[in-house]
Design brief:
It comes from Aspergillus aculeatus (strain ATCC 16872 / CBS 172.66 / WB 5094). Keywords: FAD, Flavoprotein, Monooxygenase, Oxidoreductase. This is FAD-binding domain-containing protein. This protein has about 450 residues and is of the alpha/beta class. It has 2 domains: about 5-85 and about 115-185 and about 300-430, 3-Layer(bba) Sandwich (FAD/NAD(P)-binding domain), CATH 3.50.50; about 185-300, 2-Layer Sandwich (D-Amino Acid Oxidase, Chain A, domain 2). Helix content is about 35%, strand content about 25%. It has 16 helices and 17 strands. Strand 8 (about 140-145) and strand 9 (about 150-155) form a beta hairpin. Helix 2 packs parallel to helix 5 (about 115-130) and helix 12 packs antiparallel against helix 13 (about 355-385). The longest helix is centred in the last third of the chain and has 31 residues, at about 355-385. The protein is globular and about 65 Å long. Bound molecules: flavin-adenine dinucleotide (FAD). Flavin-adenine dinucleotide binds near residues 194 and 328.
Amino acid sequence: MTFESMAQNDLNKLTVIIVGLGIAGLSVAIECHGKGHNVMVFEKYEELKQMEGDGISIGSNGARVTAKWGDGAFHKLIRPLEFQTNRAKVFDYTGYCYGTFELHGYNEGHGYTVNRGALVYAMHQYAQSIGIPIALGSEVTKYWETEDEAGIEVDGRRISADCVVCAEGIHSHGRLSITGQQMNLQETDYAASRGYLDAQVAARNPSLSWILSEEESRSEDCIYGWLGPGVHFGITTKKKDNELFWYCSHKAASTAPQNDDETMNQILQCMNGWEVRDQLEAVIKGVMSGRFISEKLAIRTPLTTWLSPRRRMIVVGDAAHAALPSSGQGGTQAIEDAATLAIALDLAGKKNVPLALSVTEKIRYQRAQIVQQGGLAVLQFVMNHVDFDALRQDPTMVKPPHPAWILDHDCQDYALKEFSKVAEAVRNGQEYVPCNIPSDGQYRMEYDSK
Ligand SMILES: Cc1cc2nc3c(=O)[nH]c(=O)nc-3n(C[C@H](O)[C@H](O)[C@H](O)COP(=O)(O)OP(=O)(O)OC[C@H]3O[C@@H](n4cnc5c(N)ncnc54)[C@H](O)[C@@H]3O)c2cc1C
């Protein structure tokens, strides 16, 4: 059945067009489908890669939503893919170990860490299994709206719905047509590099055995982190499959490296004098072909709106609030967008779609922007340690952050409880002050209080 015929079959049902098959688009599709709306997803690529990129951690604030998909069916699907990291072990560049810390909010039963491509692939599989129509190889070339409907153009066809959700990712073109804005880039002095080592490479390399079969935590996965002046290096293991991925935040080179080898050598140069340099060199250079990425880090300036003029189109996920990787929340915030939008559409109903989109924006906007800006705070926190003696005196200073206001938040409960209040503010043109953010509106990394 086509999307158009589905829509005509039940005129009372909301119809939602979703553009983009990433974490954001798939989450919107699954959440809206779960509310009984007619959804259709369009993706420009012909196929998805089963493994792509490195690991992504979905915090408990996102996992709380995805745990409900199919009453746990989706989590069952991803369980075998998970890196079972419950702890982080933190060292400094001299090899001094500050201790092993529990990873609240990203550990088993709360959040999860999986390969990014594998997560999207699993979401896609799950979406298909519940009957969500997905058109691959379908690039959306135009967005439009009237007072009564919104739509897209794809492959020369014009398709309409009650609303359109643009989840095109960081490089979105649709964002400009919908909001009239682009995100500006502000370069930082930092670069981030990442590498992925698969089972075949890692198992053959004796110089990696120290990390994949560490005595004290034989079968348990761990995140290992090293702090040095201007460098942060981390490794996440998946011991049961002899896999690991690493990431490194470092000062960007004054002249751009010409190839991967040059970049890797530049990272190693930052580690000159490090006790563990040789061990880490084996990890850095053991990367699988095609699985090394390095990029200069840039902050995206927030959009002033996520909505189209008639409020029948909205941007979500990275298209709306792309954050630095150090926020550790880009994908998770996209899941919050999706869950909030589905609830708002449900509560507002087919006759009040613009209201639903406005309510979604009001609930989500500030929270997503603060997380987006927080990526820089986290990056500076890990990069700017200079007084390593002070850290030894108080090792809690290197504990992985646990911002409770982010991780302990239940976005669905919040949307359900706040909907009427926000809807009233929208209708009356009043300000809405959200309480899903710290009270001073500033990013916080604290462990256990709002
Ligand atoms: C190194 C790194 C580490 C990260 N770590 C974490 C982490 O630990 N935790 C976390 O939560 N987040 C993390 N993130 C962020 C997270 O990966 C992103 O926020 C998330 O993947 C964005 O999803 P998205 O669906 O918005 O966009 P995308 O994944 O970019 O998906 C957009 C899709 O839209 C499609 N598309 C674009 N234009 C069109 C069009 N016109 N027509 C049809 N299709 C179109 C694209 O092909 C693409 O498939 C990390 C990011 C990086 C780079």
